[in-house]
Amino acid sequence: MRIVVALGGNALMRRGEPADAEVQRGHVEHAARAIAEIVREHDVVVTHGNGPQVGLLALQADAYDAVQPYPLDVLGAESEGMIGYLLEQSLTNALPGRHVAALLTQVVVDRRDPAFERPAKPIGPVYDEAEARRLAAERGFAVARDGLHFRRVVPSPEPLAVVEIEALRLLVEHGVLVVCVGGGGIPVVVGDDGGLRGVEAVIDKDLSAALLARLLAADFLLLLTDVQTVERGWGTAEAEPIRRAAPHELRELRFAAGSMGPKVEAACRFVEVTGGRAAIGALEDAAAIVRGEAGTLVAAAPAGVRAPAAV
Question: How far apart are CA 262 and CA 282, in angstroms?
Fold first, then answer.
């Protein structure tokens, strides 16, 4: 079975943790061991988030005023290279003899996408409200609530195409374990002359993962994060885990726009377009999720199943 495994940025760096390289390396090694268990049984392609990392790089770039801060597409490429390197090394160590390659990947977006006028994608560290408002005033950031905290938000246009898709297909068909489309891919637009140029945005990793899975004819999209299941009524006393649901059932519920919402949307899109299966769950449960023993499975509804019965 061909599986696209999407690692959430918060699975690689926990909220509130110091963003030290060794902290991230430890999380990546843990992720590599979880992925290796799946690779031994299946054909796997790996992608990953970069929200905490690209936000940190933006803060570091802003702090050095001898040059203009690098734009988000360049910072996205830096974060994709950094995380790709750590994953490539850790996966090579976890799977001796297996060919592993990380590929910087450009993803095409529409330069007229309305998301450019409505920043909504959280990046970087979390702040309390007072600190967030101060940074917004000092640096011109847009900020918004993310759960119990505040974070910087940036435009997040829809992913339309993967520039390097043919190279990815070639690598996958030759048995290479590929790490690609990191952080949703480097956002680029096509100019009037047909050339590519980067834009100031961060593409949602989960939506890009769904696109990648469709383009590579994957059977299964596995979205790994820091929670065990999707929950109905998350954050309330009535919260209940959803173990299995069809896309139309999930679309009747509401999920946080900055976290679980994109994962649910990505899973639904993949299942609706391809007829395959998708699942959302915790990194440490990765192999069990593939076996159907953990997480939230998103698939075509069995006869007689309704939304309340899926929770």
Answer: 16
Report if residue 302 sits inside a domain.
no
* CB < 8 Å & 24+ apart, contacts of 230-236: 230/255, 230/260, 230/263, 230/264, 230/280, 230/296, 232/311, 234/260
Walk across the sheet containing 2-7 and list its strands. 100-102, 177-179, 43-48, 2-7, 220-225, 277-282, 296-298, 244-245
Give the model's confidence band at 303: pLDDT under 50 very low, under 70 low, under 90 confident, else very high: very low
Phi, psi of 238 (to 5 degrees): -95, 10
At 31, is the secondary structure helix, strand, or coil? helix
C-alpha to C-alpha distance for 69 and 58, rounded to whole angstroms? 7
In 3D space, the residue among 120, 131, 183, 193 whose CA is nearest the CA of residue 154 turns out to be: 120
Does a structural domain hold residue 120?
Answer: no
Say which CATH number the domain at 200 has: 3.40.1160.10
pLDDT tens-place string over residues 203-256: 999 999 999 999 999 999 999 988 899 998 877 777 899 999 999 999 988 887
**Catalytic positions:** 9-10, 121, 205, 263
Neighbours of 290 (CB within 10 A): 23
In a domain, 272, yes or no: no
Element (H, E) at 198: strand 196-198
Domain total of the chain: 1
d(CA 1, CA 104): 25
Question: Is the full-model pTM beyond 0.70?
Answer: yes
Which residue range forms the structural domain that includes residue 176?
2-111+158-218
